[in-house]
Amino acid sequence: MASTTIQVPRETRDHLAELAKERGMSIGQLVEALAAEQPTAAQRAERLAADRQVARQVIGLDVSDEEFDQAPDILGNIYKIAADKVRAARGNAA
User: Fold this and answer.
1) Separate counts of helices (H) and strands (E) for the chain
2) DSSP string covering 8-49, please?
3) Rounded distance, CA 11 to CA 15, Å?
4) Are 41 and 49 in contact (CB under 8 A)?
5) CB within 8 A of 6, min separation 6: which ones?
6) In whole angstroms, what is the distance from residue 12 CA to residue 37 CA?
7) Which residue from 16, 44, 46 is spatially nearest to 32, judged by alpha carbons?
8) How does pLDDT run across 65-79, given as a tens digit for each residue?
9) To 10 degrees, the CA torsion angle through 65, 66, 67, 68?
10) 10-23 vs 27-36: helix axis angle to the nearest 10?
11) Exposure of 89 by Cβ count < 10 A (0-12 exposed, 13-18 middle, 19+ buried)?
C-alpha cells in the first residue's frame, strides 16, 4: 500500500502519537482507524437508502423518500424525553 505525508501542527502530531501508543498502534494505523469511523456523505447516503429499503420491505409499503423525510424524528423524540426525565430526576434529587 502506498503511503503519503499529512502535515499537521506539532501538537496534533504529538497527540496522535500518544493516542497511537496507548492503543498499541502506529500513527498511520490510528489515522486509518479514525478515518474508517467517519463515513463520507456518499457513504451516509448509501446507508440511508439501504435502511429505507429495508424499512419498506419490513412494513410492506412503498414509502417514498419524501414521506420518509417528512416522518417524525422518533429517535430524536425518545432522546429528548429521556433527557427531560434525567433533568427532572436530578432536580428532584437535589
Assistant:
1) 5, 0
2) --HHHHHHHHHHHHHHTS-HHHHHHHHHHTS--HHHHHHHHH
3) 6
4) no
5) 31
6) 19
7) 16
8) 998 889 888 888 899
9) 50
10) 90
11) exposed
Could you tell me how far CA 91 lies from the centroid of its own chain?
31
For residue 62, what is its C-alpha cell? 412503498
Q: Give SS3 for 91.
A: helix
Centroid of chain to Cα 10: 27
Burial tier of 75 (Cβ tally within 10 Å: 0-12, 13-18, 19+): exposed
What nine digits make up the cell of 76? 430524536
Cβ–Cβ under 8 Å, residues 10 and 1? no
What is the C-alpha to C-alpha distance for residues 55 and 70, in angstroms, rounded to an integer?
15
| pLDDT per position as a tens digit, 32-49 | 999 999 999 999 999 999
pTM of this structure = 0.57
